[in-house]
Amino acid sequence: MTQSLVAGLEPPYYTAVFTSVRADDPEGYAETSARMQEIVRELPGFLGYETARTPGGIGITVAYFRDLDSLGVWQHNAEHQAAKRHGRAHWYDRYSVHIGKVERSYSFERA
Hints:
About 30% of the residues lie in helices and about 35% in strands. The chain has helices at about 30-40, 70-75, 80-90; strands at about 15-20, 45-55, 60-65, 90-100. The two termini are about 25 Å apart.
């Protein structure tokens, strides 16, 4: 899980919201997740992400991208595609993906 939030960004930008249900700590998941984080952080146009998981296995990851082209590069990345196939076959009971355009953004942080 991420321990910090992505601050308000200058709109417009795009979000990819990935919600999933999976067993706690399935074999190989942590390593693949770390590799996916490594890859996406290097992509031009990637702005950050936040993730959380409940003890019952529901997870939410929100990734932020400057534009749809940047998001498309991530979506079509070969290692990401392989991880998605493996996830469907082995890790996830179900998931959904929602893509959105952000037109307004702000944040607050207590000093």
